[in-house]
């Protein structure tokens, strides 16, 4: 947790009590208009909460406070929820370990020597530690699903363009990038995903048909164990492959549904597809975001300063800026090739999934790494990142603890606006495998 508003939250909680006692609304009316009346909510330090810090882990913004709520938080407030805590992120939310020069490093509640993920890492941690009832995260390359996986909770990235991104920092540069970014719920219990999503989707909730019942036994199930051998991507841990096999066995023996193994070859290029499709024609790259979206930093100079302890940026942020520059640039022939490859994969998956199919796929190739280990495995985010550039909804589902004592899990992917299928599968697998497990911290 990097900021709190406990006093204000207590005042708002008393106001909620008084509203109930006043009899102004019936119980049914309150349930409809304010379904989360009086319930605390937390969110990450890049989603604006009026009066709270809004730094996104950037030193230049260390004293910046939000003047108004982000759209998603405003909708949760309207539903009665009370924001009380802000949680840690990676610098400018573009890395999968939550560590920055403003607030420092967050540690995994199952093993404090390991990462919490990023960029919604602090949120994943506070949920796993049962210090918040539910929270909001955001996800442009896996920033909800990776922390949810590493911390053993449920996290949902909605279909593209369903939840408003307004009120985040930094915001995407173009419409295409907006389609990759999604705000979604992070919770310990699967049943909380749907009511939260229904609220933050606002007027677009009707597109998801969340109240339409889902018969899990009538779904088409597909699974893929690995990305097929992506370059510089770690092999999938045997614990995680075993977990997928347990799911397949449960579906086949308990639910009596067929499950088909597939292998989508384009998944091998997940990282390349993500990097290329993230490019836009504004001329602004990650080094511009590190300049607080006001200027472009001199990355090489900042690296020299970092060596002497004089830079206010993290090493990984500077390395990410260099990596970003090395990728195919917008408009190049390789860019167009990879965009077409993304589009072809999207079409292939749409035909595969239809309106009643889900794909079971690893959220990440390894369990929660040790601190700083992502630096030598930077491309492992590709298991989640590919879903963002495709625009599909996906939910991380915890599957208990593995042989190393840290959480296992998978992501379930559905077609556009079929989020309810992911959520229904999450509830089914929670019943089968127990969902979130209380941490027993190893220090």
Automatic annotation (TrEMBL):
Domain Amidase, first and last residues per copy: 4-423
InterPro entries, A to Z: Amidase_dom, AS_sf, FAAH2
GO cellular component terms, A-Z: endomembrane system
Transmembrane segments: none
Pfam families given in the database record: Amidase (PF01425)
Protein's name in the database: Amidase
Organism: Musca domestica (House fly)
């Amino acid at each position: 947790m990097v900021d709190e508003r406990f006093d204000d939250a207590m005042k708002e909680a008393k106001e909620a009590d008084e509203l109930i006692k006043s009899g102004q609304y019936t119980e049914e009316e309150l349930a409809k208009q304010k379904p989360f009346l009086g319930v605390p909510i937390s969110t990450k330090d890049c989603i604006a909460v009026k009066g709270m810090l809004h730094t996104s882990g950037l030193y230049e913004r260390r004293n910046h406070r939000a003047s108004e709520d982000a759209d998603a938080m405003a909708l949760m407030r309207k539903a009665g929820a009370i924001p009380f805590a802000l949680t840690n992120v990676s610098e400018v939310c573009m890395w999968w370990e939550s560590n920055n020069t403003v607030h420092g490093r967050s540690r995994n509640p199952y093993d404090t020597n390991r990462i919490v993920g990023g960029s919604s890492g602090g949120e994943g941690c506070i949920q796993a530690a049962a210090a918040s009832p539910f929270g909001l995260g955001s996800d442009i390359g896996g920033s909800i699903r990776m922390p949810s996986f590493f911390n053993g909770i449920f996290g949902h990235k909605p279909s593209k363009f369903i939840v408003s991104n307004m009120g985040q920092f930094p915001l995407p540069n173009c419409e295409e990038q907006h389609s990759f970014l999604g705000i979604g719920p992070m919770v310990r219990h699967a049943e909380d995903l749907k009511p939260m999503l229904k609220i933050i989707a606002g007027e677009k909730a009707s597109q998801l048909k969340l109240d339409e019942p889902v018969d899990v036994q009538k779904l088409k199930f597909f699974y893929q164990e690995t990305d097929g051998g992506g370059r510089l991507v770690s092999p999938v841990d045997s614990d995680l492959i075993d977990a997928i096999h347990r799911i397949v066995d449960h579906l086949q023996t308990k639910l009596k549904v067929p499950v088909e193994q597939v292998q989508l070859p384009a998944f091998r290029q997940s990282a390349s597809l993500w990097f290329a499709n993230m490019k836009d024609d504004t001329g602004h790259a990650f080094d511009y975001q590190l300049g607080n979206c006001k200027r472009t930093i001199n990355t090489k100079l900042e690296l020299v300063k970092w060596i002497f302890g004089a830079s206010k940026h993290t090493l990984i942020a500077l390395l990410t800026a260099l990596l970003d520059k090395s990728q195919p640039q917008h408009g190049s022939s390789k860019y167009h090739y990879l965009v077409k490859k993304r589009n072809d994969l999207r079409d292939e998956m749409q035909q595969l999934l239809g309106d009643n199919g889900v794909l079971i796929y690893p959220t990440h190739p390894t369990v929660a790494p040790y601190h700083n280990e992502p630096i030598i495995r930077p491309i492992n985010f590709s298991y989640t990142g590919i879903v963002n550039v495709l625009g599909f909804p996906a939910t991380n589902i915890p599957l208990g603890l593995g042989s190393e004592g840290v959480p296992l899990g998978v992501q379930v992917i559905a077609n556009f606006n079929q989020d309810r299928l992911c959520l229904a599968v999450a509830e089914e697998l929670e019943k089968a495998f127990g969902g979130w497990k209380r941490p027993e911290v190893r220090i």
